[in-house]
Design brief:
Blueprint: H1 4-14, H2 18-38, H3 42-51, H4 65-73, H5 77-84, H6 97-117, H7 128-135, H8 146-156, H9 160-172
Helix pairs in contact: 1-3, 2-3, 2-6, 2-9, 3-5, 4-5, 5-6, 6-8, 6-9, 7-9
Protein name: HD domain-containing protein
Pfam family, one: HD
Length: about 190
């Protein structure tokens, strides 16, 4: 099993941008929390979340094949398969709870971070209904594929509002680390 340190080293060898590193960390945190909640392997789920976009910056035309192949070479087939399936349009099957969880958490976690970043209080006080409303605004975070969000929740068999609330709660617990704490106004 790949360790947290090994996963972090792999990520940092291919990813330098703060935004993508933060996205990887947020998905890792949410995946770990879901693994704990569902009685799954916390380290495996966390590493899968951390590494799902590891090759995106360095190898955008080959994403996710570089990280998938690296994980397969290391004998991490479950992680590799989940990462190869984290976008429905790639046509990969969703065979395990890990596959479904990554799909359900990736795009929506990024969207929730985008919602937090436009608020002075960031994650503090962010409500599920606000996120749902923003999901309906196609111009907000337009690159987020709302259909992926919907299909992810459906395959993972979670209620969308409960899912959003769970992700917000996880991110709130780590808002200082993620630099998503409220903005301090100067007087």
């Amino acid at each position: 099993m790949i360790t947290q340190k090994e996963a972090q080293d792999i990520l940092q060898s291919m990813t330098k941008g703060d935004s993508l590193l933060r996205h990887a960390r947020t998905v890792e945190l949410v995946m770990r929390a879901y693994a704990e909640k569902l009685g799954q392997h916390v380290e495996q789920w966390g590493a899968t979340g951390l590494l799902h976009d590891a090759d995106y910056e360095a190898h955008p035309d080959q994403h996710p094949n570089v990280i998938v192949n690296l994980l397969r070479e290391r004998g991490e087939e479950e992680m590799a398969h989940a990462i190869s399936a984290h976008y429905t349009k790639w046509g990969v099957s969703y065979d395990t709870l890990l596959d479904k969880a990554l799909l359900a958490c990736d795009e929506l976690t990024g969207f929730i971070v985008a919602c937090a970043q436009v608020r002075p209080a960031r994650l503090e006080g962010l409500e599920v209904k606000s996120v749902v409303k923003k999901l309906g605004q196609k111009s907000f975070a337009a690159s987020v594929d709302r259909e992926e969000v919907r299909i992810g929740a459906e395959l993972f068999e979670v209620d969308m509002k409960e899912h959003i609330g769970f992700i917000i709660q996880v991110l709130q617990q780590h808002q200082d680390e993620l630099q998503l704490q409220p903005q301090v106004t100067q007087s």
